Amino acid sequence: MSLEVDIVKNFEGFTLKAQFSAGNEIMGFLGASGSGKSMTLKCIAGVVTPDQGTITIDGMRVFDSAKGINIPPQKRQVGYLFQSSSLFPNMTAEQNILCVMKNTGDHKTKRSKVRDYMAMMGLEGLYDRYPSELSGGQQQRVALARILLLQPKIIMLDEPFSALDSYLRWQLEQELASVLGNFGGTSIFVSHNRDEIYRLCDTVAVVSDGAVDRIQDKWSLYENPKSYDACLLTGCKNISSARPVDNGILAEEWGITLFCGDKITKGVKYVGIRSHDIMLTDNPTLPNTFEIEVVNTMRDTFSYVILVRKKGSSILKTLRLEANWDRSDTTSSLPHYAHIPPEKVLLLYS
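Below the sequence we write its predicted structure tokens.
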């Protein structure tokens, strides 16, 4: 299976420009609310019509503005799971799935097939339940069973866990990982949650201001995001404006100069440092080491979050780092210096 998208859709004050391709993989769309993630899916599904461009699904052109092609949604063979399950409230779980099976055999055969899919999704015994009698996770599984029954060429999931409690999110995530892994075709998973993306997806597309900014392997994106938005979306808590200087880069909002090894500093606009990459030390001779003063200490579930800045600095912006409880019972017991390994400095060019 494959998907090729090259479209433009204009709205008042916002323009969506989506250009990407995907093969037999689970691609994650990572972006903030309003960045254009959901709108891109709606264009692919045929719910929204782009102003120009093309969409090709498994070699079939389903949209081409120049040639006047616009295949209706029901013929695109796209499974689209919305943030809400979109089940019919007046139908049982079984009926909600049966309703998509038209002209595909007698009722007994169709019902048997539906129950097979419900069993696959862990919905045995819930055949006669109405949506209002199902949990949020069960509703999503019914909707997903309905999609899979149609054997789509592409599965698209638009923040399917957003309405669920944390314990239900984890359970459904594990089930979804198994389903998408067995599907073997092209899947797109939309989220603004980095951890969900990294657990479920193979590649990541960063969506920002209506554009698909970058597509790459999720781990290479984490290690080298290159842009401010990508760095922020991958969970980096420390980002400062920066500019090249003779011996590295100057992180202007922290008042420190950082040596970056052999990394290219020309064109750098920002620098990022992940919280867990900042090391506390009593050895001031290490590169990128500076004396600190503690601004605030907050106890997290399994660690302390410590906000520090360069000692004597008048700059207010702090650096966030994390330390284990046994090292942070009192701020007076902390080492006096912070060390940032040169290889951990994230250079951001846009």
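DSSP finds eight helices and 21 strands in the chain.
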